[in-house]
Known about the structure:
Layout lengths: L1 H8 L1 E6 L2 E6 L13 E7 L3 H10 L6 E9 L5 E3 L6 H12 L3 E2 L2 E4 L2 H8 L2 H18 L3 E6 L7 H15 L4 E7 L4 H4 L13 H7 L2 E5 L8 H6 L11 H11 L8 E6 L2 E9 L2 E11 L1 H10 L5 E2 L5 E5 L23 H13 L3 E8 L2 H13 L4 E5 L15
Parallel strand pairs: 3-4, 3-17, 4-6, 4-7, 7-8, 8-9, 9-10, 10-11, 11-17
Antiparallel strand pairs: 1-2, 4-5, 12-13, 12-16, 14-15, 15-16
Helix pairs in contact: 5-6
Amino acid sequence: MAIIMRILSQLAIVIIGGLIVFNSFPIFAFASTSYSMEVAGWIPYWNDTKGIKDAQKNIKKIDVVYPFSFEVQSDGTLKDKANMKASEWTKFVKLAQSKNVDVVPSVIWFDGGSIHANLSYPELRKKHIAEIIKMVDEGNYDGVNIDYESKFSSTKDHFSAFLTELKKELGEDKILACTIEARTPPTSLYKVVPTTLLYANDFTVIGEVCDTVEIMAYDQQRADINLNESKSGAPYMPVADADWVEKVIKLALIDIPSDKILLGVASYGNHYEVTVGPNWFKNYRRIGALNMPDILDVAKEYKAKPSRNKAGEMSFSYMPKSSTFKFPSSIKAPKNTTSGELVSARALAYANKTGQEVTFNYASYSDVGAMTEKLKLAKEYDLRGVAFFKFDGEEDQKVWSVLR
Protein backbone atom coordinates (compact mmCIF):
# COMPACT_ATOMS: atom_id res chain seq x y z
CA MET A 1 0.00 0.00 0.00
CA ALA A 2 2.78 2.43 0.89
CA ILE A 3 4.38 1.87 -2.53
CA ILE A 4 1.10 2.75 -4.29
CA MET A 5 0.55 5.82 -2.12
CA ARG A 6 4.08 7.03 -2.84
CA ILE A 7 3.64 6.60 -6.61
CA LEU A 8 0.35 8.49 -6.54
CA SER A 9 1.91 11.27 -4.51
CA GLN A 10 4.59 11.69 -7.17
CA LEU A 11 2.24 12.05 -10.14
CA ALA A 12 1.93 15.56 -11.53
CA ILE A 13 -1.16 16.42 -13.61
CA VAL A 14 -0.57 18.73 -16.56
CA ILE A 15 -3.35 19.97 -18.85
CA ILE A 16 -2.23 20.29 -22.47
CA GLY A 17 -4.72 21.19 -25.16
CA GLY A 18 -7.64 19.96 -23.09
CA LEU A 19 -5.95 16.60 -22.38
CA ILE A 20 -4.89 15.51 -18.94
CA VAL A 21 -1.34 14.21 -19.01
CA PHE A 22 0.29 12.44 -16.05
CA ASN A 23 3.98 13.16 -15.62
CA SER A 24 5.76 10.87 -13.22
CA PHE A 25 8.37 12.95 -11.49
CA PRO A 26 8.91 13.82 -7.82
CA ILE A 27 7.24 16.95 -6.52
CA PHE A 28 8.92 18.62 -3.56
CA ALA A 29 7.01 21.29 -1.69
CA PHE A 30 9.50 23.37 0.23
CA ALA A 31 8.68 26.14 2.63
CA SER A 32 11.43 28.52 3.69
CA THR A 33 12.54 26.19 6.49
CA SER A 34 10.72 22.95 5.69
CA TYR A 35 11.68 20.14 3.33
CA SER A 36 9.21 17.68 1.88
CA MET A 37 10.70 14.53 0.37
CA GLU A 38 10.87 10.85 1.17
CA VAL A 39 12.21 10.42 4.68
CA ALA A 40 13.72 7.13 5.78
CA GLY A 41 15.89 6.06 8.66
CA TRP A 42 17.54 3.17 10.46
CA ILE A 43 16.56 2.03 13.94
CA PRO A 44 19.70 0.36 15.41
CA TYR A 45 19.35 -2.95 17.23
CA TRP A 46 21.56 -1.71 20.09
CA ASN A 47 19.13 1.09 20.93
CA ASP A 48 15.89 -0.15 19.41
CA THR A 49 13.58 0.61 22.35
CA LYS A 50 14.43 4.31 22.13
CA GLY A 51 14.47 4.12 18.34
CA ILE A 52 10.97 2.67 18.16
CA LYS A 53 9.65 5.38 20.49
CA ASP A 54 11.41 8.03 18.40
CA ALA A 55 9.91 6.71 15.16
CA GLN A 56 6.44 6.37 16.71
CA LYS A 57 6.51 9.96 17.90
CA ASN A 58 7.42 11.21 14.42
CA ILE A 59 5.62 8.57 12.35
CA LYS A 60 3.71 11.15 10.30
CA LYS A 61 7.01 12.50 8.97
CA ILE A 62 8.52 9.13 8.02
CA ASP A 63 8.03 7.10 4.83
CA VAL A 64 10.39 4.16 5.39
CA VAL A 65 11.91 2.55 8.47
CA TYR A 66 14.93 0.27 8.20
CA PRO A 67 15.26 -1.89 11.33
CA PHE A 68 19.04 -2.36 11.53
CA SER A 69 18.55 -5.91 12.61
CA PHE A 70 19.64 -9.00 10.66
CA GLU A 71 23.36 -9.77 10.62
CA VAL A 72 24.64 -12.41 8.20
CA GLN A 73 26.69 -15.25 9.67
CA SER A 74 29.69 -16.76 7.87
CA ASP A 75 27.52 -19.52 6.37
CA GLY A 76 25.02 -17.04 4.87
CA THR A 77 22.31 -17.53 7.51
CA LEU A 78 20.70 -14.60 9.31
CA LYS A 79 20.94 -13.69 12.98
CA ASP A 80 18.14 -11.48 14.31
CA LYS A 81 20.07 -9.12 16.58
CA ALA A 82 17.05 -6.87 17.17
CA ASN A 83 14.68 -9.73 18.10
CA MET A 84 12.12 -8.62 15.54
CA LYS A 85 9.60 -11.12 16.94
CA ALA A 86 9.46 -9.25 20.26
CA SER A 87 6.14 -7.54 20.96
CA GLU A 88 7.56 -4.01 20.80
CA TRP A 89 8.72 -4.68 17.24
CA THR A 90 5.62 -6.52 16.03
CA LYS A 91 3.38 -3.76 17.40
CA PHE A 92 5.53 -1.11 15.76
CA VAL A 93 5.54 -2.87 12.39
CA LYS A 94 1.73 -3.05 12.43
CA LEU A 95 1.46 0.60 13.45
CA ALA A 96 3.91 1.77 10.78
CA GLN A 97 2.25 -0.18 7.98
CA SER A 98 -1.18 1.09 9.08
CA LYS A 99 0.21 4.61 8.55
CA ASN A 100 1.53 3.70 5.06
CA VAL A 101 5.11 3.60 6.33
CA ASP A 102 7.21 0.84 4.75
CA VAL A 103 9.15 -1.41 7.12
CA VAL A 104 12.24 -2.73 5.33
CA PRO A 105 14.69 -4.58 7.61
CA SER A 106 18.40 -4.28 6.95
CA VAL A 107 20.48 -7.37 6.27
CA ILE A 108 23.99 -6.38 7.29
CA TRP A 109 27.31 -8.08 6.51
CA PHE A 110 30.78 -6.67 7.20
CA ASP A 111 33.08 -9.65 6.52
CA GLY A 112 34.47 -9.31 3.00
CA GLY A 113 35.87 -12.83 2.98
CA SER A 114 32.58 -14.47 3.96
CA ILE A 115 30.66 -12.29 1.51
CA HIS A 116 32.89 -13.41 -1.34
CA ALA A 117 32.84 -17.06 -0.29
CA ASN A 118 29.03 -17.15 -0.27
CA LEU A 119 28.18 -14.94 -3.23
CA SER A 120 30.78 -16.33 -5.65
CA TYR A 121 29.16 -19.78 -5.72
CA PRO A 122 25.69 -19.90 -7.36
CA GLU A 123 24.35 -22.60 -5.04
CA LEU A 124 25.46 -20.79 -1.87
CA ARG A 125 24.13 -17.54 -3.29
CA LYS A 126 20.77 -19.19 -3.97
CA LYS A 127 20.66 -20.55 -0.43
CA HIS A 128 21.44 -17.12 1.02
CA ILE A 129 18.71 -15.50 -1.07
CA ALA A 130 16.23 -18.10 0.19
CA GLU A 131 17.12 -17.09 3.76
CA ILE A 132 16.33 -13.47 2.98
CA ILE A 133 13.04 -14.25 1.22
CA LYS A 134 11.97 -16.41 4.15
CA MET A 135 12.70 -13.56 6.58
CA VAL A 136 10.72 -11.04 4.51
CA ASP A 137 7.74 -13.37 4.09
CA GLU A 138 7.59 -14.52 7.71
CA GLY A 139 7.73 -10.95 9.00
CA ASN A 140 5.33 -9.62 6.37
CA TYR A 141 7.82 -6.84 5.70
CA ASP A 142 7.67 -4.47 2.75
CA GLY A 143 11.04 -5.53 1.42
CA VAL A 144 14.68 -5.80 2.42
CA ASN A 145 17.59 -3.40 2.76
CA ILE A 146 20.93 -4.92 1.73
CA ASP A 147 23.95 -3.41 3.48
CA TYR A 148 27.06 -5.47 2.63
CA GLU A 149 30.27 -3.60 3.41
CA SER A 150 34.02 -4.34 3.25
CA LYS A 151 33.54 -6.29 0.02
CA PHE A 152 36.48 -7.14 -2.24
CA SER A 153 36.68 -5.69 -5.74
CA SER A 154 36.76 -9.30 -6.95
CA THR A 155 33.28 -9.72 -5.46
CA LYS A 156 31.74 -6.97 -7.60
CA ASP A 157 30.20 -9.14 -10.35
CA HIS A 158 29.04 -11.75 -7.84
CA PHE A 159 27.37 -9.05 -5.76
CA SER A 160 25.65 -7.71 -8.88
CA ALA A 161 24.40 -11.22 -9.70
CA PHE A 162 23.16 -11.58 -6.12
CA LEU A 163 21.16 -8.33 -6.28
CA THR A 164 19.69 -9.24 -9.67
CA GLU A 165 18.63 -12.70 -8.48
CA LEU A 166 17.32 -11.37 -5.18
CA LYS A 167 15.14 -8.78 -6.89
CA LYS A 168 13.69 -11.46 -9.16
CA GLU A 169 12.76 -13.57 -6.13
CA LEU A 170 11.33 -10.59 -4.23
CA GLY A 171 9.11 -9.58 -7.14
CA GLU A 172 7.72 -6.16 -7.94
CA ASP A 173 5.57 -5.94 -4.81
CA LYS A 174 8.55 -5.94 -2.44
CA ILE A 175 11.23 -3.25 -2.13
CA LEU A 176 14.88 -3.99 -2.75
CA ALA A 177 16.76 -1.20 -1.00
CA CYS A 178 20.53 -1.18 -1.50
CA THR A 179 22.80 0.65 0.93
CA ILE A 180 26.21 1.49 -0.51
CA GLU A 181 29.33 3.29 0.64
CA ALA A 182 29.91 6.83 -0.54
CA ARG A 183 32.39 7.04 -3.41
CA THR A 184 34.81 9.97 -3.32
CA PRO A 185 35.82 11.23 -6.80
CA PRO A 186 39.28 9.84 -7.68
CA THR A 187 40.79 13.31 -8.15
CA SER A 188 39.82 14.10 -4.54
CA LEU A 189 40.91 10.72 -3.21
CA TYR A 190 44.37 10.38 -4.79
CA LYS A 191 47.25 12.75 -5.40
CA VAL A 192 48.04 10.66 -8.47
CA VAL A 193 44.99 8.85 -9.80
CA PRO A 194 45.78 5.17 -10.54
CA THR A 195 45.45 4.04 -14.14
CA THR A 196 43.06 1.29 -13.07
CA LEU A 197 40.42 1.87 -10.42
CA LEU A 198 38.85 -1.18 -8.80
CA TYR A 199 35.50 -0.93 -7.05
CA ALA A 200 33.41 -3.42 -5.08
CA ASN A 201 30.08 -1.96 -6.24
CA ASP A 202 28.86 -1.72 -9.83
CA PHE A 203 26.88 1.52 -9.69
CA THR A 204 25.28 0.87 -13.08
CA VAL A 205 23.83 -2.49 -12.04
CA ILE A 206 22.81 -1.15 -8.64
CA GLY A 207 21.04 1.77 -10.33
CA GLU A 208 19.13 -0.63 -12.58
CA VAL A 209 18.25 -3.44 -10.17
CA CYS A 210 17.62 -1.74 -6.83
CA ASP A 211 14.35 0.07 -6.18
CA THR A 212 16.09 2.55 -3.89
CA VAL A 213 19.76 3.26 -3.26
CA GLU A 214 20.81 4.60 0.13
CA ILE A 215 24.21 6.29 -0.13
CA MET A 216 26.12 6.37 3.15
CA ALA A 217 27.36 9.92 2.72
CA TYR A 218 29.02 10.05 6.11
CA ASP A 219 32.17 8.93 7.95
CA GLN A 220 34.12 11.11 5.54
CA GLN A 221 36.98 11.81 7.96
CA ARG A 222 40.14 12.37 5.82
CA ALA A 223 38.84 10.82 2.58
CA ASP A 224 39.06 14.02 0.51
CA ILE A 225 42.65 15.21 0.22
CA ASN A 226 41.61 18.43 -1.53
CA LEU A 227 39.23 19.44 1.24
CA ASN A 228 41.80 18.39 3.85
CA GLU A 229 44.17 20.96 2.36
CA SER A 230 41.70 23.75 1.59
CA LYS A 231 40.20 23.59 5.08
CA SER A 232 43.43 23.24 7.03
CA GLY A 233 44.37 25.58 9.86
CA ALA A 234 41.93 24.00 12.30
CA PRO A 235 41.00 20.40 13.11
CA TYR A 236 39.24 18.84 10.12
CA MET A 237 37.82 15.37 10.68
CA PRO A 238 34.17 15.67 9.68
CA VAL A 239 31.38 13.17 9.82
CA ALA A 240 30.24 14.66 6.51
CA ASP A 241 31.18 18.03 5.05
CA ALA A 242 28.43 19.26 2.69
CA ASP A 243 31.14 20.07 0.11
CA TRP A 244 32.23 16.43 0.11
CA VAL A 245 28.64 15.16 0.10
CA GLU A 246 27.93 17.20 -3.02
CA LYS A 247 30.89 15.56 -4.78
CA VAL A 248 29.55 12.14 -3.76
CA ILE A 249 26.11 12.98 -5.16
CA LYS A 250 27.43 14.23 -8.49
CA LEU A 251 29.54 11.10 -8.98
CA ALA A 252 26.69 8.75 -8.07
CA LEU A 253 24.27 10.49 -10.44
CA ILE A 254 26.38 9.46 -13.42
CA ASP A 255 25.12 5.87 -13.01
CA ILE A 256 22.22 5.93 -10.55
CA PRO A 257 18.88 7.66 -11.32
CA SER A 258 18.16 10.58 -9.00
CA ASP A 259 14.66 9.30 -8.22
CA LYS A 260 16.18 6.17 -6.66
CA ILE A 261 18.76 7.88 -4.43
CA LEU A 262 18.18 8.40 -0.73
CA LEU A 263 21.00 10.54 0.62
CA GLY A 264 22.40 9.12 3.84
CA VAL A 265 22.44 11.77 6.58
CA ALA A 266 24.36 11.24 9.81
CA SER A 267 22.70 12.15 13.10
CA TYR A 268 25.73 11.49 15.31
CA GLY A 269 29.24 12.75 15.93
CA ASN A 270 32.76 11.50 16.55
CA HIS A 271 35.29 12.07 19.32
CA TYR A 272 39.05 12.20 18.70
CA GLU A 273 42.38 12.63 20.41
CA VAL A 274 44.29 15.04 18.16
CA THR A 275 48.05 15.49 17.97
CA VAL A 276 49.21 18.82 16.62
CA GLY A 277 52.71 19.62 15.45
CA PRO A 278 54.15 22.80 13.96
CA ASN A 279 51.79 24.10 11.25
CA TRP A 280 49.47 21.10 11.12
CA PHE A 281 47.11 18.79 12.94
CA LYS A 282 49.02 15.65 12.16
CA ASN A 283 47.14 12.76 13.76
CA TYR A 284 43.58 11.91 14.78
CA ARG A 285 42.93 8.92 17.03
CA ARG A 286 39.26 8.09 17.11
CA ILE A 287 37.95 7.67 20.63
CA GLY A 288 34.47 6.70 19.50
CA ALA A 289 31.10 7.82 18.19
CA LEU A 290 28.96 10.14 20.28
CA ASN A 291 25.30 11.10 20.13
CA MET A 292 24.02 14.57 20.91
CA PRO A 293 23.22 14.10 24.63
CA ASP A 294 26.65 12.66 25.40
CA ILE A 295 28.42 15.25 23.26
CA LEU A 296 26.70 18.11 25.05
CA ASP A 297 27.47 16.52 28.43
CA VAL A 298 31.17 16.47 27.55
CA ALA A 299 31.05 20.08 26.40
CA LYS A 300 29.33 21.07 29.67
CA GLU A 301 31.85 19.15 31.77
CA TYR A 302 34.76 21.00 30.15
CA LYS A 303 32.94 24.32 29.86
CA ALA A 304 33.47 24.25 26.09
CA LYS A 305 31.15 26.22 23.86
CA PRO A 306 30.58 24.41 20.53
CA SER A 307 30.75 26.43 17.33
CA ARG A 308 30.28 25.82 13.61
CA ASN A 309 33.50 24.52 12.01
CA LYS A 310 34.85 24.56 8.45
CA ALA A 311 32.95 21.37 7.64
CA GLY A 312 29.64 22.97 8.62
CA GLU A 313 29.33 20.78 11.71
CA MET A 314 29.32 21.76 15.36
CA SER A 315 32.56 21.08 17.20
CA PHE A 316 34.64 21.89 20.24
CA SER A 317 38.15 21.20 21.52
CA TYR A 318 39.32 20.74 25.08
CA MET A 319 42.22 19.52 27.17
CA PRO A 320 41.19 16.28 28.93
CA LYS A 321 41.51 16.07 32.71
CA SER A 322 43.94 13.17 32.29
CA SER A 323 46.43 15.50 30.60
CA THR A 324 49.21 17.03 32.67
CA PHE A 325 49.94 19.67 30.02
CA LYS A 326 49.31 23.34 30.85
CA PHE A 327 49.49 26.17 28.32
CA PRO A 328 51.93 28.94 29.21
CA SER A 329 50.03 32.18 29.83
CA SER A 330 51.82 33.71 26.85
CA ILE A 331 50.17 31.29 24.41
CA LYS A 332 46.93 32.85 23.20
CA ALA A 333 44.41 31.91 20.54
CA PRO A 334 44.36 34.37 17.60
CA LYS A 335 41.67 37.02 17.59
CA ASN A 336 38.32 35.96 16.07
CA THR A 337 38.96 32.30 16.91
CA THR A 338 35.59 30.58 17.25
CA SER A 339 34.61 29.35 20.70
CA GLY A 340 34.89 25.69 19.78
CA GLU A 341 38.47 26.11 18.49
CA LEU A 342 40.02 27.98 21.42
CA VAL A 343 41.97 25.00 22.77
CA SER A 344 42.98 23.69 19.33
CA ALA A 345 44.15 27.16 18.28
CA ARG A 346 46.26 27.54 21.41
CA ALA A 347 47.71 24.06 20.85
CA LEU A 348 48.72 25.00 17.32
CA ALA A 349 50.22 28.28 18.51
CA TYR A 350 52.24 26.41 21.14
CA ALA A 351 53.49 23.83 18.63
CA ASN A 352 54.48 26.57 16.18
CA LYS A 353 56.38 28.51 18.85
CA THR A 354 58.14 25.62 20.57
CA GLY A 355 58.35 22.96 17.85
CA GLN A 356 56.83 20.49 20.31
CA GLU A 357 53.74 18.35 19.77
CA VAL A 358 50.60 18.71 21.87
CA THR A 359 47.55 16.47 22.20
CA PHE A 360 44.00 17.53 22.99
CA ASN A 361 40.50 16.16 22.47
CA TYR A 362 38.09 17.18 19.75
CA ALA A 363 34.45 16.41 18.95
CA SER A 364 32.67 17.13 15.66
CA TYR A 365 28.99 16.30 15.29
CA SER A 366 26.00 16.56 13.01
CA ASP A 367 23.39 18.88 14.52
CA VAL A 368 20.25 20.22 12.85
CA GLY A 369 22.30 22.83 10.98
CA ALA A 370 24.63 20.24 9.46
CA MET A 371 21.73 17.92 8.65
CA THR A 372 19.77 20.74 7.01
CA GLU A 373 22.65 21.34 4.60
CA LYS A 374 22.27 17.73 3.42
CA LEU A 375 18.51 18.21 3.01
CA LYS A 376 19.19 21.21 0.81
CA LEU A 377 21.52 19.13 -1.37
CA ALA A 378 18.89 16.39 -1.71
CA LYS A 379 16.45 19.05 -2.91
CA GLU A 380 18.93 20.74 -5.23
CA TYR A 381 19.75 17.49 -7.02
CA ASP A 382 16.14 16.25 -7.10
CA LEU A 383 16.95 13.14 -5.12
CA ARG A 384 14.23 10.79 -3.95
CA GLY A 385 14.88 11.77 -0.37
CA VAL A 386 17.06 11.25 2.66
CA ALA A 387 17.88 8.33 4.95
CA PHE A 388 18.99 9.14 8.48
CA PHE A 389 21.49 7.07 10.38
CA LYS A 390 19.99 6.87 12.85
CA PHE A 391 16.60 7.16 14.60
CA ASP A 392 17.24 6.46 18.29
CA GLY A 393 15.90 9.49 20.11
CA GLU A 394 19.43 10.85 20.50
CA GLU A 395 19.60 12.79 17.24
CA ASP A 396 19.17 16.57 17.36
CA GLN A 397 15.40 16.66 17.84
CA LYS A 398 15.20 20.03 16.10
CA VAL A 399 15.62 18.25 12.76
CA TRP A 400 12.03 17.02 12.93
CA SER A 401 10.79 20.60 12.76
CA VAL A 402 12.25 21.00 9.26
CA LEU A 403 10.78 17.76 7.96
CA ARG A 404 7.19 17.50 6.82
